[in-house]
Design brief:
Oligomer: single chain
Mean pLDDT: 81
Number of helices: 4
Strand order of the largest sheet: 2-4-5-7-6
Amino acid sequence: DMSAQAKQRLGVLQNGLRRARALLEQLLALARAQELDDRQVGEVSLDHVFRQVLEDLIPLAQAKHIDLGVIGDASAVVWASEIDLKILVKNIVENAIRYTPEGGRVDLSVHSADSHVVLQVDDTGPGIPKEERTRVFDPFYRVLGNDEVGSGLGLSIVAAIAARMGAEVTLDRSGGEEPTAGLRVRVVFRRIAANPSI
């Protein structure tokens, strides 16, 4: 049994510990993403990675009543480390869920061409002003005026992993002309033969 005041203080402490743990996990993920090591790479199915990420993040989306899902066929394969690819996709999707207002929508999709594969995540959140779309890849940078709790490391991790894979990350509006039209994150992977010597 605890007094109301003690319960309130305990709640504040628990929230602080959760934020500290999340920050530590993001810092470790960023350090791993920036390491120059020989990770096991091979052909990785985006559909497989999407299923793993959605399984992890469905509870977060459900808590905000966000419609989270995959549009179309996501069966494309990219040449990457599966662990890196999962971290990259999870950071993008988790950011989209966190910054999309309750009742919104987050869509994952894949577009394939002869020379490249595009992983795309669209949300119905506030988007990112054009002048800040480069800065958000800097560690700890956060867009002003946003009340969402975060470390400002998610997109830094995405950029580091994409650079390791030779992929390109771009940010744009997900639709419409207004600043509140949502955010579209695109990761473009160049197609690489499974055996580079061929």
